[in-house]
Amino acid sequence: MRHRSAGIKLNRTSSHRKAMFRNMVTSLFKHERIRTTDAKAKEIRRWADKLVTLAKRGDLHARRQALAIIREKDVVHKLFAEAPERFAQVNGGYTRVVKVGFRPGDAAPISMVELVTPEVKKKKARRKKKAKKAAAPSAAAPQATTSENKTEASPAADEAVKTADDTETPTEAVADGAAEEASPISDEASTAPDPRADVATEAAAAEPTGGQAGDAETTDEAATEDPPKKDA
Questions:
Q1: pLDDT digits 0-9 by tens, 180-212
Q2: Which of 2, 36, 176, 219 is most exposed by smallest CB count within 10 Å?
Q3: Which sign, positive or negative, has the C-alpha torsion 70, 71, 73, 74?
């Protein structure tokens, strides 16, 4: 019974199977992608992930273990040079299997195995926030300078307004001259005596009042009447 026996046999002997996977792993790291059947593609991922882990460790013993599997020294040097930077931020999942179709001869399902380059997370949001914070004081500074310029320019503006009030326009000067010419005539007309008023006062003085005439008649009548007789 097959207890605790990892991997698939693929109807091959162990030596044949190991040699086949060593060749496939060497081609995978050399060309970064290969095409094979689904069963072989799923098994080759185990070999590739183990070798990438050795390359990330990077010591001499790991390099010798990788040389015992990969058949070309140049491929080992390339793997140990690129893997620590390329796969530094991930732990596992260094390869990807993509199904392609079926093989024409026996209709076996074919897949593509390729190395995956993980996306590096860029810290742009924090830098933008810092840039915004730095830009806020700089934006406030021009506003302060503009307000200072306004305060500095206010005395000059006041002086300009005063000078504008003091200066008279030609139309205002003409209106003032016409008013001055008309004012002496009006003053003379107000001070000149009215002849009608003099005539009225003379007539009033010549005619005696009704009250005074009545009083004079009463006095004359009283003088002509005899005085009252006293009783003996």
A1: 555 544 444 455 555 565 555 665 555 555 444
A2: 2
A3: negative
pLDDT of 73-132, one tens digit each?
999 999 999 999 999 989 988 999 999 999 999 999 999 999 998 876 666 666 666 666
Sign of CA dihedral 82, 84, 85, 89: positive
Contact 24, 111 (CB under 8 A): no
> How far apart, in whole angstroms, are the C-alpha atoms of residue 174 and residue 180?
10
Show the domain range for 79: 14-115
| CA dist list (Å): 141 to 121, 145, 151 | 35, 6, 15
Total domain count, the chain: 2
**Is 108 a domain residue?**
yes
> Does residue 197 form part of some domain?
no
- Separation CA 66–CA 50 (nearest Å): 9
**Is this model's pTM higher than 0.90 or not?**
no
Evaluate whether residue 6 is within a structural domain.
Answer: no
Which candidate, 50, 43, 51, places its Cα nearest to that of 111? 43
Q: Same domain, yes or no, for 146 and 54?
A: no
Residue ending a domain, among 87, 115, 143, is: 115
Measured distance CA(8)–CA(17) in Å, rounded: 9
Neighbours of 99 (CB within 10 A): 11
Cβ count within 10 A of residue 94: 22
Phi/psi for 118 (5° steps) reads -65, 150
